[in-house]
Amino acid sequence: MNYKTSRIIKRILLNIPLAIGAIIMLAPLVWMLSTAISPNSFLPRQTLMPDWQNLTLQNFVDAWNFPSATTEGLTMGRFFLNTVIMTVCIVIGGLLFDSMAGYVIARKEFPGRTFFGFLALSTLMVPFYVTAIPQYLIVKDLGWMNTFQALIVPSLASGMGIHLFRSHFRSVPIELEECAKLDGASDFRIFFSVMIPISKPIIGTMTTLKAMWSWNQFLWPLIVINDKTMYTIQQGLTFFQGLAVTQYGYLCAGMTLAILPLLVVFLCMQNFFIGGLTAGAVKG
Questions:
Q1: CA 91/CA 209 separation, integer angstroms
Q2: Phi, psi of 270 (to 5 degrees)
Q3: In total, how many domains does the chain have?
Q4: Each residue of 216-248: pLDDT tens digit?
Q5: How many angstroms separate the CA atoms of 232 and 148, rounded?
Q6: pLDDT tens, 168-199?
Q7: DSSP category for residue 55
């Protein structure tokens, strides 16, 4: 057996476990899609293949309008809109605050700069369940229950985002800022015209992470939102599950609609995602 043949065999043997793992991980997704395009049923399907003779997209239409038949104006479309508003505000506001904080910690000299850098990083070690009650009490005292402020404001800044931007800005040559200062640029002009345009990998990475995290939130909205008209899409999916029965066709169609925006975001940002993570890990 020559070297080329042995290398091909070795590669095949290494890829077999990866292929098996991929099939196992994709099986629930395939089942969800096949159930979504099959007639609605109160019984879970026992196969990954759809009902080829009765393929339908009606589940998506009914899921989008569900449960308007029982509650006027309350549909999956409303939950979808609430989640879009929350996610867009968290992503845009989070990128602004994280990048500005990371830039200040990385470039500006002030007492406690190193301490604040480590303090932002240390927040990654604190579980959400530790801060959930204090955040809830603050939101309640501010009168923000059942509002977008309760969904958005506590999530605007993140320790991971500040750390990644800080690491990135520290890797940028200081000569770029010095040249801009010689031209009379202010700190804000340097930040928005020099630093932000060269931070696309980090921005793409944080956009993906923040969009995925905020879109998939369930526990925090469950704590601060009691008004059904303010439900997010993750809360809205629970309407398809009753105490006695579950409408699996509607449920799977709703879940498919729920993951489509995240898929679009990831496909748009995938060129920056890996590069951003790598760039943020080069220098700490």
A1: 9
A2: -65, -30
A3: 2
A4: 999 999 999 998 889 999 988 888 877 667 888
A5: 11
A6: 898 888 888 888 888 888 888 989 988 998 88
A7: -
Same domain, 49 and 176: no
Residue 66 falls inside a structural domain: no
**∠142-148-150 over CA atoms, to 5°?**
40
Angstrom distance (rounded) from CA 258 to CA 237:
9
List, in sequence order, every residue forming a beta bridge with 241; answer none if it has no partner.
246
Q: How many CB atoms lie within 10 A of CB 81?
A: 12
Claim to verify: residue 20 and residue 46 sit in the same structural domain: yes
Distance CA 118, CA 127 (A): 17
* Rounded CA separation 33/166 (Å): 41
Is the confidence at residue 276, as pLDDT, over 80?
A: no
pLDDT of residue 1: 58
Instruction: State the residue for tokens 């009490």.
Output: 137
Instruction: Tell me if 102 sits within 8 A of 279, measured CB to CB.
Output: no
Residue 171 CA, chain-centre distance (Å), reads 26
- Only one residue has tokens 């077999």, namely 16
Both 164 and 257 in one domain: the answer is yes
Range of the domain at 45: 3-58
Helix (H) or strand (E) holding 268: helix 248-282
Residues 6+ apart with CB under 8 A from 239: 66, 67
